[in-house]
Specification:
Shape: globular
Largest sheet: 6 strands, mixed
Number of domains: 2
Order of helices and strands: HHEHEEHEEHHEEEE
Strand order of the largest sheet: 6-7-5-4-2-9
Oligomer: single chain
Number of strands: 9
CATH class of the largest domain: Alpha Beta
CATH architecture of the largest domain: 2-Layer Sandwich
CATH superfamily of the largest domain: Histidine kinase-like ATPase, C-terminal domain
Length: about 280
């Protein structure tokens, strides 16, 4: 009887071991399949992004030549409006393509930083210039407030600009006419360099804050449906900031606006002995 029980337990152990090995093999195959799919997706997006960016850069370049009337004045004043629309649409499409490619790289752990030391003031002014027309067309007012002790940054300047551009475009998109947008920058030796974009827009419900940080997700309302985007802005901002060792903080209230801050860690601040000038412009 004892021998039979021992044999039964031995068979059970063998069966359990086989079951574990089968489960492990299935998990390994699933992991390999997922990794292969991810590599294929990244390769496809990289190829498509290159194929799309090449003609878009040509469209943007030629439209800039026409805007400056390098080869002579445009015969019909209406054409200038068309050229401006072509340039703006091409630039917008190029930004979407860059966002998709960068988010794909971030998901694959391949988002690389081209680090340098730069003045975030210049980056903020550049972003403000890029969105000035959108702010004006949207019937909005804006303001920039930078602390006197805002230091230089050791970071990827292009991606920092991409971060701020996404935040400001979101603020413009979801703020009705008559609203206000503010860009601010300050430095805290313990927290780091904090760049903030604040608006008086439609806001986000507390329960939706986590969802808007997921790719392709957006809050749903009659206002947002008329301004539908890709839903890549905030997820990409979060990925870029994490790659910098920083973070993103968002707070919002329905009909009261949204405040988004990106925080670069203190070690990325390059503190000057002579503080740069402060700026506050309406």
């Amino acid at each position: 009887m004892g021998r039979k029980n021992g044999t039964s337990r031995s068979v059970d152990r063998v069966a359990l071991q086989l079951e574990r090995e089968t489960a492990y093999a299935s998990l390994r195959l699933a992991k390999e399949a997922a990794e292969a799919a991810s590599r294929a997706k990244s390769s496809f997006l990289a190829t498509m992004s290159h194929e799309l960016r090449t003609p878009l850069n040509a469209i943007i370049g030629f439209s800039e030549i026409m805007q400056r009337e390098v080869l002579g004045p445009l015969a019909n004043p209406q054409y200038r409006g068309y050229v401006d629309d072509i340039h703006e649409s091409g630039t917008h499409l190029l930004q979407i393509i860059n966002d998709i490619l960068d988010l794909s790289k971030a998901e694959a752990g391949k988002l690389e930083l081209d680090e340098d030391v730069f003045d975030p003031r210049d980056t903020i002014h550049s972003v403000r210039q890029l969105v000035r027309r959108r702010i004006s067309d949207g019937g909005l007012s804006d303001m920039v407030e930078l602390a006197a002790d805002l230091p230089l940054l050791r970071a990827d300047e292009r991606k920092t600009k991409q971060v701020l551009l996404n935040l400001v475009i979101n603020a413009v998109k979801f703020t009705p006419s008559g609203g206000h947008i503010e860009i601010a920058g300050r430095f805290d030796p313990e927290t780091g360099v904090i760049l903030t974009v604040k608006d008086t827009g439609i806001g986000i419900a507390p329960g939706d804050l986590a969802r808007v940080l997921e790719p392709f997700e957006q809050v749903d309302s009659s206002f947002t449906r008329s301004r539908r985007g890709t839903g890549l802005g905030l997820p990409l901002v979060k990925a870029i900031m994490e790659r910098h060792g920083g973070s993103l903080a968002i707070s919002s209230e329905i009909d009261a606006g949204t405040r988004v801050s990106v925080i670069f860690p203190p070690w990325r601040a390059v503190v000057q002995t002579t503080p740069a000038h402060s700026l506050s412009a309406a």
